[in-house]
Amino acid sequence: MNFDLTDEQEMVRDTFARFLDEHSSTIRVRAAHPSGFDPALWQGLGELGAFGMRVPEEFGGLGMGLLDAAVLMDEAGRTLVSGPLAETLVATRLLSQLGGDAQADVLSRAIGGETVVTVALHDIAAMPRQWVPGGLVAEAVIARRGNDIVLVSVPEAARKAEENLASTPIAEIDLGALDAAVLGSGSDALAVFAAGIEEWKLLIAAGLAGIGREALKLASAYANERMAFGQLIGTFQGISHPLADRLCEVDGAKFLVWKAIRDIYDGSDEAAAGISLALHWASKYCVDAASQALHTFGGYGLTTEYDVHLFVLRAKAWPLVFGDTDLLLDEAARRLYAGETAALPDAGDVPIDFDLGDEARQVCEEIAKLFEEKVTPEMRAKFHYSWEGYVPEVHKMLADNKLLFPGLPEELSGRNITPYAKIAAMGELEKQGYNTPGANVAAMVSMIIHKYGSDELKRDVLPKIINGEVLTSLGYSEPSCGSDVFAAQCKATPDGNGWRIDGTKMWTSGANLADYVLMLCRTNTEVPKHKGLTMFIVPLKAEGVTVQAVHTFMNERTNITFYDGVRIPDSWRLGEVDGGTKTMSAALELEHGGGFSKVMKGMIHAAEELCVEIATPAGKLIDQPHARRRLAKAVAHLWISEMMTYRAQWASVEKKPSGGFGPMAKMWSSEKFLQDSRDLLDLTAPLSLSKRTGAAALVNQCFRHAHGTTIYGGTSEVHRSMVAERYLGLPRTRG
Q: Where is the Acyl-CoA oxidase/dehydrogenase middle domain (predicted)?
């Protein structure tokens, strides 16, 4: 797996970033109004080789890949580049593919920035008069004309300037009335041109992501200096949380572009739909990000003195020259569910990679084989995403095969496998339906005992956990504390050579199944709350422990546990007295960043199955555009969730700065899981109201399950604050 650009790509990015910072500053962008074109900037880009980036070397270009062009467009978006860069990148490539010797001079001048060549986005045989991106300054336009691809010469008299939303160099031109040279005819030429339009979609989406991210950066900087009511406005969750949400959406746009490019390279069936989803998503959510950024400035954002409005206008205008981009969701739906195909551009070299590797596949195959051979239908019938899905025989089977705790180091897991194989193994267990909280918590407790436990605990308790003989529960939260575990009041007081535990713990899920609970107790009331805590292992079968069920509407049992004079020896303490905060940090070693993409995928597949099954007066539900559209929207959420999780895992494994990637993946995926569970329940109603075994039961369950995912493990609000602070650099919103 790799989310890094190559050194060469980073050099290219840095080169263009420095040039654009100087030559496409907002001062220069404003100076280019009203035409929206900066000739000096254009000449400079030509000298740097920007326009020849996608042109093969034999035609005078650089022969670079689609990802390289997307990186350039990200920087172009960040700096609001004044000119039709995406269109020219596509046009020069098309000229090299179709123009031949007859158009060599036009190609050379276009690569050098001496002239502008752009593309018409719609067939001029059907729409001879249309809005052309860059049409105001282009001397030539490449267009489809029925069965031909033509190069239309556009005299200055045909290019009429008009005021427009974002002062971009668009123009409405009657291309059908102008002289045109045929570049190619027939299916091959049409496919080359169609692939160019698909490339344009990806490049515009990449540029929009750059616009959105820079707008959020401006908002963050302002929120870090603007005071209101005696505080920085960035401390207000009403400011920081919407910005965190918009950041997730902007990252989602970039990730859809990256995924589509990688899918093109891999020959994936998802590539064509991914292109449509990328531009649909970017055109909707990057302008939302810019608008939210403007809102952060309050009334100042509305004035032309502040730059943020420029980002709002460009984010909105860039894609709309294509027309209503909401229709791209319908296009994606047809490509996903109606068999529609598309000609795709060549991706070139693609260093980004979301594959976990051969060892990962081998481990997954081993797990799948175990489940196929040794897990009975009766065992599978007990599987559930909650603690109640614990099946002792399966738990022990995994332990015996050294697959119960793949995320732990070899001395605990019993196996030496690579980090990515560990990630894949945990994913395969989830795919099999047996990634239960019981195993995950047991892994965490094993790590803490291994690092901080006494010889007695390592001798008498740790082997039982590692061998799959017992479960452990977590005793962090309390009825009055919620997510603030450091406010724990459950007391541990010295008692001879040991301790006496008194108090109550809430949300001790699995306590009805476990033998032990890892407890955080108050041992000192005379110091700050986070310094007066100590961690213990407490036997749940001990005298004075009461476990009381708390049932949820998600079909998930949790517990409230009471401790009345429970006595344990000091050897069952973990770490130093009053050092519980440090002891808890051991659990972070298992943190790779996670989300709910696998259950989201299962839910979508179940909804697809129901759509095939459900008959309506208009025919099968799956054949109806509105149904396919809603499924496609859920697929976009799924793909972004997967990419966010991959990035968080990659950053953890490769020791990269994470910037809140883990909290982002968890928050985003849980919120979209909840959103889509509602929508897909609606889509497949009334059948989805049933708990009928199969797809209906799963869609029904997912609606209930999704509510909990936005709460446990830290609420979405907590994670939004983390994203705002770690990724956007906003001040803390919590005491």
A: 474-554
- Banded pLDDT at 436 (limits 50, 70, 90): confident
Nearest-angstrom CA–CA distance, 59 and 112: 12
pLDDT at 392 exceeding the cut of 80: yes
Long-range contacts of 432-436 (CB under 8 A, 24+ apart): 432/367, 432/368, 432/371, 432/375, 433/380, 433/383, 433/389, 434/371, 434/383, 434/389, 434/391, 434/394, 434/398, 435/385, 436/384, 436/385, 436/386, 436/387, 436/389, 436/390
Model confidence pTM above 0.85: yes
H or E element in which residue 490 lies: none
pLDDT for 34 beyond 50: yes
Query: What class does CATH assign to 472-590?
Result: mainly beta
Return the residue matching tokens 């949300």.
507
Closest CA to 427 of 369, 372, 363, 382: 363
By C-alpha distance, which of 667, 656, 653, 660 is closest to 714?
667
Rg (CA), the chain: 29
**Which CATH class for the 7-192 domain?**
mainly alpha
Count of residues making up the chain: 735
Over 90: is that where the pLDDT of 203 sits?
A: yes
How far CA 332 is from CA of 90, 278, 345, 589, in Å, comes to: 22, 9, 17, 40
SS3 695: helix
Residue 658: its pLDDT value, please? Answer: 83
Cα distance between residue 580 and residue 497, in whole Å: 19
The number of CA neighbours under 13 Å toward the Cβ of 197 is 19
Place of tokens 């791209």: 328
Q: What angle do the packed helices 597-613 and 695-709 form, to 10 degrees?
A: 150
pLDDT of residue 596: 92
For 92-145, write each residue's pLDDT tens digit: 999 999 998 999 999 999 999 999 999 999 999 999 999 999 999 999 999 999
Provide the 3-class DSSP secondary structure of residue 545: strand
Work out the average pLDDT over 497-525: 95
Residue written as token pair 């603690």 = 387
What CATH number belongs to 597-726? 1.20.140.10
Asked whether the bond before 56 is cis by omega within 30 degrees of 0, the reply is: no
DSSP string, 25-94: -HHHHHHTTTTT--HHHHHHHHHHTGGGTTS-GGGTS----HHHHHHHHHHHHHTT-SS-HHHHHHHHHH
What band does 401 get if pLDDT is binned at 50, 70 and 90?
very high
* Widest CA span in the chain: 99
Q: Is the pLDDT of residue 735 over 50?
A: no
> Is the preceding omega at residue 34 within 30 degrees of 0, hence cis?
yes
Given this model, what pLDDT does residue 592 score? 44
The amino acid present at 262, given as its one-letter code, is R
- Domain positions in the chain are 7-192, 472-590, 597-726
